[in-house]
Design brief:
- The chain has one domain: MFS general substrate transporter like domains (Growth Hormone, Chain: A, Up-down Bundle), CATH 1.20.1250.20.
- By secondary structure, it is an all-alpha fold.
- The protein contains 18 helices and no strands.
Length: about 425
């Protein structure tokens, strides 16, 4: 097992310090841990399962079930944020037991059970229950899994190791929508077949995790009295470096419109046939697959905060293109590439940043805290955008999101820039 950077430095670091004094990784050859590879395969199978459903969910809700964009916004908000209610608790449980794999298995297993419910769902409330169960499973598994990756990765190549995992994850995320596209192409309104295929891949992912990924024992957090545990968890959010990261990530996540809405805007503008809709997810995830490792490598060399903020600049450009009165396949492909770049520059990089800001025995809790803030804010963003679309229309709503995101980006860049300057002067 590799030793984490936090172990080498004696604990947590400031995000400015981490970027300002980050080793370039030169002289240390990159070597991928087999554990990270297997975790990537687990995530690949799980994302085939989840993304095959996500790719048809906007059409299933607004077309097949005939619900409004407000209803879809609520469902998509749950899809974005329901996992937040358990992320910190799952991270704490992982740190407390010292067995992150066991906590991750519980999360993957719950999502697998939720997939079974899709075979019988037929209305708004049943979908609410299924999406909530699936996302809670995601919330349980994500921080423990990322803690395993952080522990197994070479510290000089931390973001790159997360990038490799995210690349494998998004191979699955690209394959799932492609499967959904092929099924709907061969079987019009074959949503039930998509749900059955989704369940099969969820089972495969859980089986690989249980049977192949080793149950690494990690450093355990110290025991605390029951009455002080909750307060202790929240005190971890008050670390200066982690607090700045949470504020920055939360503000930006409030302006992160759900992918489904962006795709609905593109479909509304260009009016292409519905069976092509899942391919929009494929395009985004192909871009993510291609860019995940380069973005992780760039973050390790150039600075993780810079790459994280740069990813949101790509998201801003995506919003502007989606809102523009321009049609055609070229604009659509550009939107998908920009969205893929956004995820490649932010997803694994955020986990890498958070893992550096807490002591070794609290890595999963720190990662879970960052993911919780992002998930909650994205849930609010999706619900709010659904109402905004209903009130002023698709293009106007997207343009509004772009303008506000530009302002927030400027503010957060100043915030993180000041943090780095203080760290460099210290």
């Amino acid at each position: 097992m590799y030793i984490s950077m936090a172990d080498r430095t004696g604990g947590k670091t400031d995000p400015g310090t981490a970027d300002a004094k980050l080793p370039a990784g030169q002289g240390v050859a990159f070597r991928l841990s087999p554990v990270i590879l297997w975790l990537g395969i687990v995530s690949m199978a799980t994302d085939i399962s989840s993304e095959s459903v996500s790719a048809i969910l906007p059409l299933y809700v607004t077309g097949f079930l005939g619900l409004s964009t407000i209803a879809y916004g609520f469902i998509d908000g749950l899809n974005q944020g329901a996992s937040a209610v358990v992320r910190i608790a799952a991270g704490w449980a992982s740190d407390r037991t010292g067995h992150p794999k066991r906590v991750a298995v519980a999360g993957y297993g719950l999502s697998m059970l939720a997939r079974t419910g899709l075979l019988f769902a037929g209305g708004f409330w049943s979908l609410i229950g299924i999406v909530t169960g699936d996302r809670i499973g995601k919330g349980i598994r994500t921080a423990p899994r990322d803690a395993l990756i952080s522990a197994e990765a070479q510290p000089e190549h931390l973001a790159r190791s997360f990038g490799v995992h995210r690349m494998l994850d998004n191979i699955g995320a690209a394959t799932g929508p492609m499967l959904a596209f092929l099924i709907l192409l061969l079987i019009p309104n074959g949503f039930g077949v998509v749900f059955a295929v989704s369940l099969a891949f969820a089972v495969i992912g859980v089986a690989v995790l249980v049977l192949v990924v080793p149950d690494r024992r990690m450093a355990r957090a110290a025991e605390t009295p029951t009455r002080t545990r909750t307060a202790s968890r929240w005190r971890q959010l008050k670390e200066p470096g982690l607090t700045r990261l949470l504020v920055t990530a939360g503000l930006l996540a409030l302006l992160t419109v759900g992918d489904g809405f962006i795709y609905l805007v593109l479909q509304d503008r260009d009016s292409f046939a519905v069976q092509w809709f899942p391919l929009l997810y494929v395009g985004t995830n192909v871009a993510y697959v291609v860019l995940a490792v380069p973005m992780g490598r760039l973050a390790d060399r150039w600075g993780r905060v810079r790459v994280f903020l740069g990813g949101h600049v790509a998201l801003l450009a995506c919003y502007v293109l989606a809102a523009a009165p321009l049609g055609g396949i070229g604009v659509t492909v550009a939107c998908l590439m920009l969205l893929g770049l956004f995820y490649a520059a932010t997803d694994g990089v955020l986990a890498a940043l958070a893992s550096r800001l807490v002591s070794p025995e609290k890595v999963a809790t720190g990662i879970g805290a960052a993911q919780t803030v992002v998930a909650l804010c994205r849930m609010a963003a999706s619900a709010g955008f659904g109402i905004l679309w209903f009130a002023i229309g698709a293009s106007a709503a997207m343009l509004t999101a772009a303008v506000v995101l530009a302002a927030v980006l400027a503010a957060t860049a100043v915030l993180m820039g000041a943090s780095q300057k203080q760290a460099a002067d210290a």
